[in-house]
């Protein structure tokens, strides 16, 4: 009985994931007719592969948050590319690499993954390590304003992911490490 | 109008090239694995972003636009994720200089 329910649950997730991936395939191939059969194979294999991973938390982007995040991200990543290009072509790139530890305030789950990935595309920073309490960031400069920049990014991403019911200021993941007295 | 769009597209595509070049130059010139990843991820992101914008302007159809944007987003997430994985591995190996140092 339980097994049966499990299977139905699995089938539903498989169908849903396949449909999402099918849209990606159709867009990427321009729905070319001779791409449909290989697409079927690829989409179903990819869907099965993705379901082998532990399920992530589902999430939605808040439209207003996205509206504020997008220009911020585009401008900053343009700066990042220009900065790194300038260094690459300059006679003396003047690198002062440092490692910075960034303590999470974002709630656990997709927002943190998104933050870590975004950090790598912004000027001078690259995320190189990840655990429940902190993110390790490699910086090209030992820049004093870095922490402030990162907190600003955190606010933007928080606006993008936050649900009204769970404020991000709350420290997540404390239940297992510090049981209440 | 179509003329302006055409030239704008051309400008963006040409502007994308130095970024791709910079990514590769940085990859060759920067001193260690971590700084090299900086060069590749960020420069390629901007290069591809400009290229995609230029191509969207050039083709100017919703289907092609959606396709190009999707490619950009997919490459962005793949690049950032791969960069993180290589970076995390390089960071773990930092105790062993042979793994990260540049041999002339």
Instruction: Tell me the radius of gyration of chain B.
Output: 17 Å
Low-confidence stretches of chain A: 166-181
Total number of β-strand segments of chain A?
Answer: 3
The greatest interface here is: A-B, 35 and 39 residues
Mean of pLDDT of chain B = 88
Strand content of chain A: 5-15%
Order of helices and strands of chain B: HHHH
What's the order of the H and E elements of chain A?
Answer: HHHEHEEHH
Strand content of chain B: under 5%
Q: What separation lies between the terminal Cα atoms of chain A?
A: 40 Å
DSSP strand count of chain B = 0
Q: Based on CA inertia axes, which overall geometry of chain B fits?
A: elongated
Helix content of chain B: over 70%
Assembly state = heterodimer
Tally of separate domains of chain B: 1
Q: Spatial order of the strands in the main sheet of chain A? A: 1-3-2
Helix percentage range of chain A: 55-70%
The shape of chain A, in one word, is globular
Q: How many domain modules of chain A?
A: 2
Tell me about this structure.
Chain A folds into 2 domains: 2-52; 63-171, no CATH class. Chain A is mainly α and 181 residues long. Chain A is globular and about 60 Å long. Chain A has 6 helices and 3 strands; from the N terminus they run αααβαββαα. Chain B has 4 helices and no strands. Chain B starts with a helix and ends with a helix. At the A-B interface, helix 1, helix 3, helix 4 and strand 2 of A face helix 1, helix 2 and helix 3 of B.
Pick out its properties.
heterodimer; A: 181 residues; mainly alpha; 2 domains; 3-stranded antiparallel β-sheet; 57% helix; globular; disordered C terminus; B: 104 residues; elongated
Per-chain topology:
The complex is a heterodimer of chains A (181) and B (104).
Chain A: H1 2-29, H2 36-52, H3 63-89, E1 98-103, H4 110-121, E2 125-130, E3 134-139, H5 146-161, H6 174-177
Antiparallel strand pairs in A: 1-3, 2-3
Helix pairs in contact in A: 1-2, 3-5, 4-5
Chain B: H1 2-29, H2 33-59, H3 62-92, H4 97-100
Helix pairs in contact in B: 1-2, 2-3
């Amino acid at each position: 009985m339980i097994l049966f329910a499990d299977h139905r649950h699995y089938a539903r997730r498989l169908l849903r994931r396949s449909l999402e991936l099918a849209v990606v395939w159709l867009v990427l191939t321009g729905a070319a007719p001779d791409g449909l059969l290989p697409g079927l194979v690829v989409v179903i294999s990819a869907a099965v592969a993705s379901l082998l991973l532990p399920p992530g938390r589902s999430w939605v982007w808040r439209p207003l948050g996205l509206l504020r995040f997008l220009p911020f991200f585009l401008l900053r990543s343009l700066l990042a590319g220009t900065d790194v290009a300038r260094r690459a072509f300059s006679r003396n790139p003047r690198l002062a690499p440092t490692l910075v530890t960034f303590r999470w305030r974002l709630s656990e789950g997709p927002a943190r993954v998104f933050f870590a990935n975004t950090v790598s595309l912004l000027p001078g920073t690259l995320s190189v390590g990840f655990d429940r309490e902190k993110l390790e960031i490699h910086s090209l400069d030992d820049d004093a304003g870095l922490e402030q920049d990162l907190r600003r990014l955190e606010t933007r991403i928080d606006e993008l992911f936050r649900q009204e019911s769970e404020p991000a200021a709350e420290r997540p993941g404390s239940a297992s490490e510090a049981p209440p007295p | 109008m179509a003329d302006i769009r055409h030239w704008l597209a051309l400008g963006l595509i040409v502007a994308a090239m130095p970024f791709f070049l910079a990514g590769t130059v940085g990859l060759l010139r920067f001193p260690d694995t971590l700084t090299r990843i900086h060069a590749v991820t960020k420069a390629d992101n901007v290069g591809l972003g400009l290229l995609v914008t230029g191509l969207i302007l050039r083709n100017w159809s919703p289907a092609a636009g959606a396709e190009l944007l999707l490619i950009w987003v997919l490459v962005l997430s793949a690049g950032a994720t791969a960069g993180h994985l290589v970076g995390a591995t390089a960071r773990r190996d930092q105790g062993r200089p042979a793994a990260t140092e540049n041999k002339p």
